């Protein structure tokens, strides 16, 4: 039997699960420390979490209008073909593969492995090769026991998602419930025990230094990693029932829920740890703020509890990212703009070859850098395309004025306009505050130019094959 049709098996509940599951990962536990180091003010840390949430919500609302109008498998890749052109759509899809989604999988799996190592020390592997490097920048075999564990996780979750979309989302739902229970326990016991310290939250830095706009952008860059992932549900638009309604609703509900959750849990961290203690956590590099906060509350038992929770959270977010991301490469391959074998579905109606390509590259990225290098590079790259999607709201209002829109962005044109301005500001600030990550991200994006030319030439030279379902 020959078929290339994805099944529309996902309703609103699973859309929300995928949105939230793609967002909650490592950032909620780690990123408060670099934000404190940048701002030196507990009050401004919370302000930046709120601002990042609002910008993410505005971006999500803008994305929801585009998604509601153009819902299809591939997310922004499909949208950009209608809004801009095939080249720009390809550059986005290639950027997902080269850096945005695969590096997200790598960094999440890496934190999972670090958390596992903190609970059950992993045996050393290839220690004699630890000093092997590439141009003095990359040390692929340093901490290889942790990196190997991350790679094994990517492989195992890829195999799980080969069994079908419901298998992947069912697994993600179960993990998400455990994560919610753990975070709510932290908020409940942490806040209730520290209510008398609420007056320590202040917008004034201890030394009285002014808070600069660059510091705010840099701190929000850390927060954006924790909010990253809400747009991923668009990649599986072809598998969502009543996608034109359920995708906008699912994105909006999911992001609003996350904003409230993040504000509460980060307030808890700030009540349990002072800003100088958070700065020390950041400077040491090998510690996680949430673990130290819970250690101060419940001792070593608290540290073990939060380590297990981080383990579960990153496991769920890695699974959700693997599940959704590969659908874009599948959509590209159907058009002859990615490796042709990726366009095949297995007997579970899953793009198995796309999952395989994604797993291989994500595993290589595990060997390439540190967690913060990967996440900063991701945020730089992804905000280029967040801005492009939001600009699409204005373009589609002009080019398709009478098209049915299940959802129209609230506050148009102010809300999408603010998102575009913010994206431009964050991109420019990254070149000054994190030039290495900005350049690396830009280089990986630009590798898409020769790949586009190659795929286009191959597509013209090769007859269109009859793609069979894998058995």
TrEMBL record:
Keywords for this protein: Membrane, Transmembrane, Transmembrane helix
Membrane topology category: Multi-pass membrane protein
A GO molecular function held by the record: L-amino acid transmembrane transporter activity
InterPro entries recorded: AA/rel_permease1, AminoAcid_Transporter
Keyword Cell membrane in record: no
Compartment annotation: Membrane
Primary site of residence: membrane
Recorded GO CC terms: membrane
Transmembrane segments: 12-29, 41-61, 87-113, 144-163, 170-191, 211-230, 251-272, 304-330, 350-371, 377-397, 409-432, 438-455
Record-given protein name: Basic amino acid/polyamine antiporter, APA family
Organism: Catalinimonas alkaloidigena
């Amino acid at each position: 039997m020959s078929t290339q049709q994805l099944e529309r098996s996902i309703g609103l509940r699973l859309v929300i699960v995928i949105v939230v599951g793609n967002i909650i990962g490592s950032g909620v536990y780690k990123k408060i420390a670099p934000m404190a180091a940048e701002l030196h003010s507990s009050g401004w840390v919370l302000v930046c979490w709120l601002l990042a949430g609002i910008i993410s919500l505005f971006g999500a609302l803008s994305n929801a209008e585009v998604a509601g109008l153009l819902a299809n498998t591939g997310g922004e890749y499909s949208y950009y073909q209608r809004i801009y052109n095939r080249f720009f759509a390809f550059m986005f899809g290639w950027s997902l593969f080269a850096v945005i989604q695969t590096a997200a999988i790598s960094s999440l799996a890496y934190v999972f492995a670090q958390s596992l190592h903190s609970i059950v020390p992993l045996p050393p592997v290839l220690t004699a090769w630890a000093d092997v490097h590439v141009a003095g920048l990359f040390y692929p075999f340093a901490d290889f026991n942790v990196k190997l564990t991350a790679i094994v996780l990517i492989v195992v979750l890829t195999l799980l998602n080969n069994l079908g979309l419901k298998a992947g989302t069912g697994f993600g739902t179960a993990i998400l419930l455990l994560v919610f229970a753990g975070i709510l326990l932290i908020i409940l016991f942490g806040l209730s025990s520290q209510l008398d310290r609420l007056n320590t939250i202040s917008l004034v830095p201890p030394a009285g230094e002014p808070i600069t706009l660059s510091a705010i952008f840099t701190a929000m860059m850390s927060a954006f990693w924790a909010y990253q992932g809400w747009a991923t549900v668009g990649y599986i638009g072809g598998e969502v029932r009543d996608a034109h309604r359920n995708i906008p609703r699912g994105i909006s509900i999911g992001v609003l829920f996350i904003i409230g959750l993040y504000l509460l849990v980060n307030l808890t961290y700030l009540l349990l740890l002072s800003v100088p203690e958070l700065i020390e956590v950041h400077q040491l590099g090998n510690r996680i703020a949430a673990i130290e906060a819970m250690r101060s509350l419940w001792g070593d038992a608290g540290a073990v509890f939060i380590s297990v929770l981080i383990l579960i959270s990153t496991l769920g977010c890695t699974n959700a990212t693997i599940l959704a991301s590969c659908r874009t490469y599948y959509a590209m391959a159907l058009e002859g703009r990615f490796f042709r074998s990726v366009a095949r579905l297995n007997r579970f109606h899953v793009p198995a070859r796309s999952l395989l390509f994604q797993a291989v590259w994500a595993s290589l990225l595990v060997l390439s850098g540190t967690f913060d290098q990967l996440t900063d590079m991701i945020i730089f790259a992804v905000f280029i395309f967040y801005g492009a999607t939001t600009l699409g709201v204005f373009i589609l209002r002009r080019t398709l004025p009478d098209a049915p829109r299940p959802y129209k962005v609230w506050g148009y044109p102010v809300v999408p306009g603010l998102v575009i301005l913010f994206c431009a500001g964050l991109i420019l600030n990254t070149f000054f505050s994190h030039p290495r990550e900005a350049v690396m991200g830009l280089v990986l994006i630009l590798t898409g130019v020769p790949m586009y030319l190659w795929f286009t030439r191959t597509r013209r030279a090769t007859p269109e094959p009859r793609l069979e379902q894998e058995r």
